[in-house]
């Protein structure tokens, strides 16, 4: 389904004209000529003809040329200023003229009082409350930061629906005395997370990874919407207000605030779908700061700076960190008090395209460019809009414009306006593009211009009215807007769209900071977490952390899982725990159930223990050598039941009772140190039914030492242990997972022992090709219960697989999908729609993205309850040898085993392995 488009009534985007000349300058010039003619010589009236023709010729260059010239004249600076600096310069400080009576020496040809300041163009006066600013013209403003809609994975139908909702918000305010400013601020962000590892390899991997986030490589796009309330219908109302007595003045101002808060509450309720947060005051170390003022400061200077909320005139201390602003031709130079500088150019829309659609400007967010987009919209009451449209229609007809389509659009617009389908308002647009030097800013500007032209917009660089265009970015500076056009609410909604990329959450997660940071196609960092978000601050709470990873071989799944394990291990650091956690629980254990030895080198390099099993070789497992408690006895009963029901047999009630009694006797009455060869011990406590060739005892005899499967569990001691001085364990299932006779009992026993570690410590269990480890109904039942309860025990289960089809065959497949807070999908060009949409609860759009991914770029899709993000894992800064360690090739496992079996320090083992991978 194609995106819905809205007509942009182009005939209304131009100034009203008569004889091809904008009406206001035309009338002004003709009035002046008439006045001179009347007072001098009536024949001078003939001069009007060539002057009008000249004026008409000038307009052929730009419909807004006279507005631009007027703005240029308004912000003209003294000649001495330009002579002194070489360019038009506005200082951040305003100085008063010194008295002539004081005999001070003249030190400069340019007196400080003659140096123009941009303070007069800062419209803000005072902070009335935590989120409400009063302007110098007694207008009230509040601003919201908006997370926006994750448009990359939204269907076009949903985008259209959301866009209609947004358009209706502005239409609902068309009869109110409010205006709106929208800003999209794309800027550099620092990307780094704290991580302190005891293991040198893990620390090096972490540090090398974050080197890929070089200065300027990560961008963020912040969206802001500002509402402005003008309580005065006209200048007379304002004069009356200013003439009120002090008490009445205060009371009336309180009335204005009450009215505006009603408007802002309405707006905020409507913006809830877009995740809006009102900017306001916050405290840090006992001092008050304001995110609202920080945003306004950014608009002034192009940098986000911490800004105090002071009891002082805002226009006097909001300077954006600037010493001065300089304008030369089409260039802006921002000179900061810190002696650094930044350059900018401003792009304006010279002529609009014929239609708009939701997210028409979205492609700008993929550019490696810093910019600020400013769009203002002042809705007109229906009667005023109707009157303006009719006048514009007459002037359009008088302008001799040949566009039949645009002429017809006036009737369409009037009809839809009358029916209440549309609202119209005054609109302006600019985009300030930044660069660190002249070459960069011009290159960045060209990228943006090309992008805008690709969507059908004709643009130009601001030059003559450059200062006005820059200062018009500040909310309420209506009079400084050089290009004001009439557009409708649907066009405005499409142009701002409120589209953005998910950011994840950097702090205040269940275990503190984000697990790691991932890159995105837009260069915006994505703070990846496995735990679900329940509140604004989940630190110390136990939220759901289970996750599911689906990806074909070669798509980067193994590398991601091991890198994720490494990043998770930073949470073993005691300083990352809440202070109220007992010291004995300030620890972490991570267990990874592997397949095909893919994690071997990484786990061993991280100081972990990696356990491999070989068919026919005693495992060192003795299930009866564990502690005797109710939970362990229950698990033993299930394990023994798996041993004797592997071929579909069932246990009679009498057999089940006999088995339970035998297990309880062994565990309760035989000391742990005497429970050697547990299966043999069990057989001694079972009676034999000679008349039944498939009796309970006969079936168990297969698992006795010396029998076919005696090597599996009938061992003298149990060597499977998990000491606290090791926090990373790997157990490989390659040798037994494909053997149906031993896979289920071994998988259950390993899971049983691993989950017994859960005691309130931070715990994670990762399972590769989990459907093979869970290929038994009794095991699935246990995992199903653990999926639901493990979050309460401060743990998580992460499950991964190449095969969606095999995953969905599990009886608990639906529960797995529901009980995992994060789903991660790697490329799969052979993806089946039913498997992904019906089986894994993906939307059709998500399924298409997964199927259409280019595997060469190692992208993947992260799906969480509140967001869906397209990301990729860039491990290029780790080097070939470290990447090879993270994802071990099966052909290298013998060499890895050889190196790590040596009696040398761990660091030397890791270095030897790195050298091995460097040289192959």
From TrEMBL:
Superkingdom assignment: Bacteria
Chief location of this protein within or outside the cell: membrane
Location relative to the cell: Membrane
InterPro entries, alphabetized: CagE_TrbE_VirB_cntrl_dom (IPR018145), P-loop_NTPase (IPR027417), P-loop_TraG (IPR043964), T4SS_component (IPR051162), T4SS_VirB3/TrbD/AvhB (IPR007792)
Keywords from the named record: ATP-binding, Membrane, Nucleotide-binding, Transmembrane, Transmembrane helix
GO molecular function: ATP binding
TM region positions: 16-36, 42-59
Segments forming domain CagE TrbE VirB component of type IV transporter system central: 278-483
Gene3D superfamilies in the record: 1.10.8.730, P-loop containing nucleotide triphosphate hydrolases
Pfam families the record matches: CagE_TrbE_VirB, P-loop_TraG, VirB3
Residue intervals of the TraG P-loop domain: 527-870
GO cellular component terms, A-Z: membrane
SUPFAM superfamilies recorded: P-loop containing nucleoside triphosphate hydrolases (SSF52540)
Alphabetical list of PANTHER family matching this protein: TYPE IV SECRETION SYSTEM PROTEIN CAGE (PTHR30121:SF12), UNCHARACTERIZED PROTEIN YJGR-RELATED (PTHR30121)
Entry's family note: Belongs to the TrbE/VirB4 family.
The protein, known as: P-type type IV conjugative transfer system protein, fused VirB3/VirB4 (TrbDE)
Organism: Aliarcobacter trophiarum LMG 25534
């Amino acid at each position: 389904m194609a995106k819905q488009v809205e007509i942009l009534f182009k005939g209304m985007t131009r100034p009203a004209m008569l004889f091809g000349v904008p009406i206001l300058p035309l009338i002004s010039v003709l009035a002046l000529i008439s006045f001179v003619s009347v007072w001098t010589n009536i024949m001078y009236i003939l001069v009007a003809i060539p002057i009008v023709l000249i004026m008409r010729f000038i307009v052929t260059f730009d419909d807004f040329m006279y507005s631009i010239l007027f703005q240029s004249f308004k912000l003209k600076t003294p000649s001495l200023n330009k002579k002194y600096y070489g360019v038009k310069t506005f200082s951040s400080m305003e100085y008063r003229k010194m008295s002539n009576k004081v005999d001070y020496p003249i030190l400069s040809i340019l007196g400080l009082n003659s140096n123009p300041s941009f303070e007069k163009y800062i419209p803000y006066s005072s902070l009335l409350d935590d989120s409400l600013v009063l302007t110098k013209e007694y207008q009230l403003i509040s601003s919201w930061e908006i997370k926006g809609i994750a448009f990359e994975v939204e269907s076009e139908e949903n985008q259209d629906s959301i866009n209609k909702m947004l358009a209706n918000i502005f239409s609902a305010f068309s009869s109110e005395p409010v205006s709106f400013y929208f800003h999209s601020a794309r800027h550099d962000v620092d990307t780094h997370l704290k991580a302190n590892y005891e293991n040198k390899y893990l620390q090096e991997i972490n540090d090398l990874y974050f080197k890929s986030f070089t200065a300027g490589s990560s961008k963020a796009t912040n969206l802001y919407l500002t509402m402005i309330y003008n309580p005065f219908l006209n200048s007379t109302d304002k004069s009356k207000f200013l003439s009120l007595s002090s008490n009445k003045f205060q009371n009336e101002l309180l009335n204005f605030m009450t009215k505006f808060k009603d408007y802002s509450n309405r707006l905020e309720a409507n913006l809830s779908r877009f995740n809006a947060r009102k900017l306001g005051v916050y405290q840090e170390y006992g001092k008050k700061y304001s995110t609202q003022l920080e945003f306004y400061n950014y608009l002034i200077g192009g940098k986000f700076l911490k800004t105090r909320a002071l009891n002082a005139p805002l226009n006097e201390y909001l300077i954006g960190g600037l010493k001065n602003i300089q304008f030369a031709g089409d260039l802006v130079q921002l000179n900061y008090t810190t002696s650094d500088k930044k350059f900018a150019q401003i792009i304006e829309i010279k002529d609009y395209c014929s239609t708009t659609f939701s997210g028409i400007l979205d492609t700008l967010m993929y550019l490696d460019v810093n910019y600020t987009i400013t769009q203002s919209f002042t809705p007109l009451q229906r009667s005023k809009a109707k009157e303006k449209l009719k006048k514009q229609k007459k002037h359009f007809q008088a302008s001799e414009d040949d566009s039949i389509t645009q002429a017809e659009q006036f009737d369409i617009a009037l009809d839809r306006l009358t029916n209440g389908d549309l609202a119209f308002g005054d609109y302006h647009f600019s985009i300030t593009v930044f660069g660190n030097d002249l070459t960069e800013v011009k290159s960045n500007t060209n990228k943006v211009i090309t992008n805008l032209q690709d969507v059908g917009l004709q643009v130009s660089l601001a030059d003559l009215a450059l200062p006005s265009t820059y200062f018009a970015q500040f909310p309420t500076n209506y009079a400084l807007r050089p290009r004001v056009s009439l557009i409708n609410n649907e066009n405005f909604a499409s142009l701002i769209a409120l589209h953005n990329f998910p950011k994840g959450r950097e702090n205040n997660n269940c275990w503190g900071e984000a697990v790691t940071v991932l890159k995105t196609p837009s260069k915006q960092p994505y703070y990846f977490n496995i735990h679900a978000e329940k509140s604004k601050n989940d630190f110390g709470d136990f939220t759901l952390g289970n996750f599911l990873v689906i990806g074909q071989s070669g798509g980067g799944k193994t590398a991601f899982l091991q890198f994720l394990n490494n990043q998770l291990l930073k949470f073993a650091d005691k300083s990352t725990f809440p202070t109220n956690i007992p010291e004995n629980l300030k620890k972490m254990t991570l267990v990874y159930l592997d397949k095909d030895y893919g994690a071997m080198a990484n786990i061993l390099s991280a100081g972990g223990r990696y356990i491999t099993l070989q068919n026919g070789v005693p495992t060192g497992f003795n299930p009866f050598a564990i502690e005797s408690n109710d939970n362990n006895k229950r698990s033993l009963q299930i394990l023994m039941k798996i041993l004797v029901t592997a071929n579909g047999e069932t246990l009679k009630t009498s057999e089940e009772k006999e088995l339970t009694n035998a297990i309880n006797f062994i565990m309760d009455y035989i000391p742990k140190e005497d429970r050697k060869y547990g299966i043999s011990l069990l057989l001694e406590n079972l009676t034999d039914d000679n008349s039944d060739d498939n009796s309970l005892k006969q079936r168990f005899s297969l698992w006795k030492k010396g029998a076919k499967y005696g090597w599996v569990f009938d061992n003298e001691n149990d060597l499977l242990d998990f000491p606290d001085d090791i926090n990373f364990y790997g157990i490989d299932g390659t040798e037994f997972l494909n053997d149906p006779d031993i896979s289920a009992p071994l998988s259950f026993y390993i899971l049983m022992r691993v989950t017994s570690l859960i005691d309130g410590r931070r715990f994670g269990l990762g399972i590769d090709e989990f459907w093979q480890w869970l290929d038994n109904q009794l095991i699935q039942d246990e995992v199903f219960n653990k999926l639901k309860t493990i979050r309460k025990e401060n743990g998580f289960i992460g499950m991964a697989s190449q095969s969606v089809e095999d995953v969905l065959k599990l009886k608990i497949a639906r529960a797995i999908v529901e009980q995992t807070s994060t789903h991660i999908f790697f490329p799969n060009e052979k993806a089946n729609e039913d498997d992904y949409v019906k089986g894994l609860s993906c939307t059709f759009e998500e399924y298409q993205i997964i199927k259409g991914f280019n595997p060469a770029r190692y992208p993947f899709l992260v799906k969480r309850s509140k967001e869906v993000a397209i990301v990729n894992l860039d491990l290029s800064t780790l080097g070939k040898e470290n990447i090879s360690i993270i994802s071990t090739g099966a052909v290298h496992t013998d060499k890895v085993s050889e190196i790590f079996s040596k009696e040398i320090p761990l660091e030397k083992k890791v270095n030897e392995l790195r050298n091995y991978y460097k040289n192959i």
